[in-house]
User: Which sequence fits this backbone?
């Protein structure tokens, strides 16, 4: 991989930060943390030598950064990005996805934000992105199921790297715990990732779940079909193993 941008899209609370932490540890990539959701939240975001106030401007800055060397972008779909969806240049990046069982993601999201709305759960928006990209590129984007990632981290990361054209670097699977400067605006959301030293399952106990709260159960019923559609394309734990 040389002069290219890889984007990892995720519904919130699907272990995307832990995945991106592996990419940070590699040392051969410029890693950009949630630029699209940060721009949506605060109205602007700095990338490279520029500042973007719209998603097309931001995409242009990321592609410009990628022309100088390999870039990995991690972002979430608690926001919808209509201008980005309409921009044909999005297909110039290698767009990939990470998902998690919606029951787990919803309970975790609600624990962080009790006012979370149905669209913010993000699986439907992920599927919309997936479909747009599949139509434009003529192939299904790479999808990682985070349950497989925590069960077989080395195999899944190796398979992902093969699929997107990166060398597999085993040393990146472990790191020193701690917060990262790029997480500062949303540090509370990355507390679990900051406490880890590698990819691991960290199951929490939540006061409200899809089994105890009807609103969350309705969120699960709505989003699970989109999760299932994405999961049908999941990467297997062998290099080059995407169905």
Assistant:
């Amino acid at each position: 991989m040389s002069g290219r941008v890889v984007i990892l899209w995720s519904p919130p609370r699907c272990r995307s930060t832990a995945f991106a932490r592996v990419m940070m540890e590699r040392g051969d990539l410029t890693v950009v943390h949630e630029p699209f959701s940060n721009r949506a939240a605060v109205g602007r975001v700095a990338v490279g030598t520029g500042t973007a106030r719209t998603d097309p401007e931001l995409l242009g800055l990321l592609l410009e950064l990628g022309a100088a060397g390999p870039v990995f972008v991690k972002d979430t779909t608690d926001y919808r990005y209509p201008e980005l969806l309409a921009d044909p240049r999005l297909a110039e990046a290698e767009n990939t996805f990470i998902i998690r069982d919606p029951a787990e993601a919803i309970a975790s999201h609600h624990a962080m934000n009790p006012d979370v709305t149905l669209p913010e759960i993000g699986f439907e928006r992920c599927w919309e992105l997936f479909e747009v990209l599949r139509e434009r590129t003529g192939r299904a984007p790479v999808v990682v199921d985070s349950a497989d990632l925590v069960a077989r981290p080395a195999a899944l990361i190796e398979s992902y790297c093969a699929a997107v054209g990166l060398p597999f670097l085993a040393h990146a699977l472990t790191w020193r715990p701690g917060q990262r400067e790029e997480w500062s605006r949303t540090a509370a959301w990355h507390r679990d990732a900051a406490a880890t030293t590698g990819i691991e399952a960290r199951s929490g106990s939540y006061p409200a779940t899809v089994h105890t709260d009807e609103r969350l159960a309705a969120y699960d019923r709505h989003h699970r079909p989109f999760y299932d559609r994405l999961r049908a394309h999941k990467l297997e734990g062998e290099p080059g193993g995407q169905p």
About this structure: Strands lie at 5-10, 30-33, 45-47, 50-52, 71-76, 94-99, 142-145.
